[in-house]
Structures are given as C-alpha cells and as structure tokens.
Design brief:
This protein is α/β, with parallel strands linked by helices and 196 residues long. 38% of the residues lie in helices and 13% in strands. The protein has one domain: Rossmann fold (3-Layer(aba) Sandwich). The longest helix has 12 residues.
Amino acid sequence: MGSYIPFRKNGSHLEKITQDEKKEGKRIILTGGSFDITPPHSVHINYLRECKKFGDILIVNVAKDERIKFTKKDSKIPRPIFEEEIRAFNISAIDAVDYVTIHPYVYDSKDDSPEIGPTARLAKILKPDVIVKGIPGWHQNEKTKLKNFLGYDVELKHVKIKEDISSTSILEYLLEFPGKQIKKRNFKKFLKSYRF
C-alpha cells in the first residue's frame, strides 16, 4: 500500500522523496490519470501493476477536480464523480503503488497540449526514470515535445489496456441500467454519501 502525499508549494518535499529513493538505487516510475470511480476498477489496478514492472517505485499523479472538469467537459455525466482526495486515497491502496499526489496544474490557455499536462509538470520536479502512459500510447511528436520540456532523456513507456472498461463506461451503465439500490433520481445522493 502506498502513501498519499499532498502537493505543497513547489513540490520540493516530493523531489526529496524521489532523490532518497534514487540514492538507494531505486528506479522511479511516474504515471497519472483521473481514476474517477471508487473503488478503482480492474483496468486501473492492472494498468498500475503493469506500470510497476518498469521499475521499483511507482508514483501516481491523480488529476485535480478542476482538471477533470476541463478535460471531460463533453462527457454525458458531469465529472469528476469523486473528489480528488478520495480518488488519491483509493489509488494509494493499490498494492503496486508507492506514492500518490495531486499536482495543482489545471489549464493554460496559451499552451495546453496533453503531453505538457500535470503529470509532465510533476515529472519536471521529480525527474523519474520512466513515464508511463496508457491509451493511445506515445506519438513521436509527443515524445519530442515532452523530452524538450523536461530537459532530459526520460524513458517513455506504454501499457496496452486490453479490457474494454473505463470509469465513463461504468458510470454510463449505472445511469442507463440502475439497480435496485441506485435509482437515477437518487444517483447524486448516493455519490454524496461517499464524500468526506
């Protein structure tokens, strides 16, 4: 089980953690995502376990609520469903995860390409050995732009996700075919019961 470490100021406390791990000869892996369902579903768990195979210490950046509102603004279901601290805490409970944080970056109207999002900005601080991405993988122009932004030759890996399950598909299913416990009209009330 990992530790949820809130992001503070410039992230120097997280940088120190990774530096200490590297001094021990550990290889640092970084990935990120929304993880907007609780408990985490099988694809989340399998994805993070696959990420861990690229090194020793897995750090997961969970997207801020405001970031999800921006990136998933066209979703049929208002997102996020669960608040960022809940999502981070749940991801920290997965066996493959060592550390979880929430980078504060949301959006920059001047330059907001996906490869320079919050996880890339966290990588600039932590300098991981590997950054892992799920679907759709890395395109050459993304690799070039990210490495130029980071200023070093980080390894960029890709985990192929086999299962056709996503947080969005699960939420859409629940709304379309609500069970006896969850009626459409009570769905928001049901979700609020899981908030701190």
